[in-house]
Amino acid sequence: MPELDDFQKSCFDAHNELRQKHQSQVLEWNPDLASSASDWAKRLADKGYMQHSDTTGLGENIVITDEDDGNITGSGVVDKWAREEALYDYTNPKWQKGTSHFTQMIWKSTTEVGIARVPLESGKGYVIVAHYKPAGNTNRAGDYAKNVLADEAEPQENGDMV
């Protein structure tokens, strides 16, 4: 695996910790995805606003922060995206508003990721982009049921552990 900076390593490791809890295999680091994530993050840093790329076949998570470098870590970004799980209803597995960052991170059939962090033009924050392959959040019948699985350690409604 190519050498990752501290931010990338923290974000990558946090992705895989989350995925293991949700019964998904660990992701492999893909330097080409990291490069495409970096290219898109640079474009967004110049623009100063968030917009998804039109890259076909890739999943994409983006966050723009106004926090200083000392306040935002790779694991902190994953935690931010993972908070969307509170909005996801596992009993109704389908696309659900406000959960796409979370579901992409744990999407079972996704196998690769590349992550980049670029400072904003203003110098007062960062654009963070993660590219995933194959893309998650596909909306064919049954895709969410197969790819977005509950945390094995979380108690379910009947109080049993999954």
TrEMBL record:
CDD domains reported in the protein's UniProt record? CAP_GAPR1-like
Which parts of the sequence belong to the SCP domain? Answer: 6-140
InterPro entries (alphabetical): CAP_dom, CAP_sf, CRISP-related, SCP_GAPR1-like
| Superkingdom | Eukaryota
Query: What parts of the sequence cross the membrane?
Result: none
**Residue ranges of coiled coil:** none
Q: What is this protein called?
A: Golgi-associated plant pathogenesis-related protein 1
